[in-house]
Every structure is written in structure tokens, then in C-alpha cells.
Amino acid sequence: MFHPLRVARIERTVGPGGAGDTVALTLAVPPELRPVFRFLPGQHLTIRHITPDGTELRRNYSLCNPAPPPGSAEPGPAELTIGIRRIAEGGFSSYAVTRLTEGDTLEVMPPAGRFTLVPRPGRFAAVTGGSGITPVLSMAASLLAAEPTARFTLLRSDRTAASAMFLTETADLKDRYPGRFQLISALTREDRQAGLAGGRLDAGRLAGLLPRLLPVGEVTGWYLCGPLGLISAARQALAKLDVPGERVHAELFHAEDAPLPPAAPVPGRELARDAEVSATLDGRSGSFPVRDGETLLDAVLRGRPDAPYACKGGVCGTCRARLLSGEVHMDRNYALEPAELDAGYVLACQSHPLTAEVRLDFDA
Ligand code: FES
Hints:
Bound molecules: FE2/S2 (inorganic) cluster
Distance between the termini: 17 Å
Number of domains: 3
Order of helices and strands: EEEEEHEEHEHEHEHEEEHEEHEEE
CATH architecture of the largest domain: 3-Layer(aba) Sandwich
């Protein structure tokens, strides 16, 4: 369900072209909605925006301010901050960067997402690319404030120093927690005076670099966030360094309109024709016919416009549902971890029926 939240502050930053192409947007949460907007470090907000021609856009943005500590008596956050980089003309990001003003209202869904770090003792590390810094900034700030013995290493990669988001905020963490927060910056499109030499962080480079930065085997949680190339490279490097897969968590940042690899074909199976999907959502169930070629999400949306989704690209995980019976084929999956797949979860926006009847539970 979407709630109207007022834009309390907009901080514009200077981008590579000299004009502001990113903003830090702070939304005010009225007292009655604070419990609804409690969040875990790493979670995101979904914003709904209607363009002048009536098209509905939904975009996810990670929260980057610290989360209230676990068990805190606070009813919930009074403010929420997200970082937005302008990606394409005509999309929500260009509207937010160029036209949105303080006092405007946005329609916002409560925080969601399972790419989270609940503060606890231990050593944690993150590899981020570009705007992938946003959820990790919240994770590091929340962890270091809540757990006096926890340590966090951040390897952030940006194209150029001028394009890097939240540079001041990450530098502040280094000043505030000098013994517990380690910051390494890499620039892929320019050389710098200090830090790593320029160039892409590929799997070979990361596998050589990480053991020189920290005791890899002692890290209990790895958090990878950014574009597909960086996430794949970091996964390969960590596998090479014998890091168990269950310690590695990833969130792909899919820039608006950026192409994803093509969907994989169905391996030796025919999609079911004249299929029907039964779906449970907010405790109510219904059945919906699935038209040839459409996804289960689109079939459900015709009867239940409140079905959850944001990217429709297999990236954000908002449309996650549990498959209770039947079989489906997913075009692509960049959101669900292996344990979730084993537990029977699917992405409704990527699922097509392989059997005539399919049952989904969005509440599970
Ligand atoms: S709506 Fe984003 S993964 Fe399905």
C-alpha cells in the first residue's frame, strides 16, 4: 500500500558534467506512519510516479540513513533518506533530480527487501559500485553505531571522483570509527593520487586484493551491491577465496532502462496454455486466467491491482511469492538467493506456467 510522504529536504550534488545529476532526498514521516516505516539497514522504498502521459512508474531506492537500533523504543524513523542518480530522460530519476521540490508529496510503499544486515557482533565487508553505495551506507552506519565491537570494510568503486555518491558520508564514518571502519576507494575511469590505481575491479584483481585488505576467512557477511559485472566479479573472487556461498549477499542495481542479459529459454519444456493462477494476497485468494506469453504477475494484476511489484525485471524481489503447487519457469532471477529458491519462492514478474494450474502465496 502506498502512503503520501512529504519531501522535507533535497540536497543536490555536482555530477561529472558539472551539473547536479544526483540528489539525496529526505522524506518526512508523520507520527502515525512511523511504525509502518520502520526499516532494517539495507532495505529500500518503492516510489510510485505517474508521468504526464498517465504512465505509472515504480522505482526502488535504498534507504541510506541509519536504521533505528534493534529493540529500540522509538516508534519508527521521523525521516527517510534515499539517493537518486539521474539515469534517463523522462523517467522518475530525471523528474526527481530536475523538477521535484521541497514540500512536494511522493507516494511511497513501506520499506521492503531482504538484502539486510541486522546489527550484530562480527566482521563484515562490502563491495559496491556506483549508486550501490546507498544501502551499504545505511548498513555500515547502523552496525557501527549499534555494535561497539563490530568491524566493517567497504571497498567502493566509482567511475570518477566527481560522480561518487555520499563521499562525505563515508569519509565521516572513517573519522568517527577509525579503528572499526576501513574504507578503500577505487575509480574505474581515472587514476587518483591516493587509494587504488584506476581500472575495473575484475574477479582476478579482487581475488588478489581482498586478502591484502582484511582477513577474508573472518568475515561473516559479505554484501555486494552495484551493476551486474561487479557483482559477478566479486562472487567469482569470493568463491576463489573459499568463502561459503551463504555468507555472500548481493543486490543488483538495475539502472532505469539499462539492458539486462536476454532471458534464458525454457530448457526442454513447453509453457502451459490456457493456464490459471490462484493467488493469495493480504489473506484473500482468487483465480486468474493466464494469457499466452504473459507473466503470472500480469495475470494476477488484472484482478488484483494491489499485487506487489516494482521493477518487473527480476531485480528487486518485490513480487516474491511462494509457489504452493504447480510448476513455473522464470525468465531471469537477480533477486532471490539459493535458499529462497530451495524454499519454493519465485518472482511472479518473471514466472510463466509450466502446468495448467499454479498456486502462489504472496503473503508467505
Ligand atoms: S517486480 Fe522486481 S523482481 Fe519482480
